[in-house]
Amino acid sequence: MSQLLSGELFDILIGKISTTINRTILRAFASENIEITTEQWTVLASLSIKDEVTQQELCNTTLKDKPSMTRLIDKLEQRKLVIRLSDQPDRRVNIIKLTNEGKRIQDKATLIVQNIASKTLSNITPEELDLSRNVLRKIMSNLK
Fold first, then answer.
1. What is the number of domains present in the chain?
2. What is the pLDDT, as a whole number, of residue 28?
């Protein structure tokens, strides 16, 4: 098989895996009446690790551009899952913080995502998983 063809098949496989995981998570969220997207969940999850971060820090953590992050935060703020605070030293900077409701939804959604991840990786050995992570990290590094 040519290098180009195997690369195309790899691209298709990665895309299918990503789409399938995303759909599985969204269906599980819906079945638990969690009305957020997977992108919104990544913002909430990032805030659960380090709350009260700048919008730029969230962009860096989630690999989203500023306009996309602004839209995500706007929607989360409308749903009262996060709040924006002005940074005291530099009022041009927004600090993003989880609300109590945001924390509750994030905790519930994270349990769902962890269960899906466990099921997804159930018959994969630790060695296979390490190898896969290393290969995917190299691919990400090559794309930078």
1. 1
2. 97
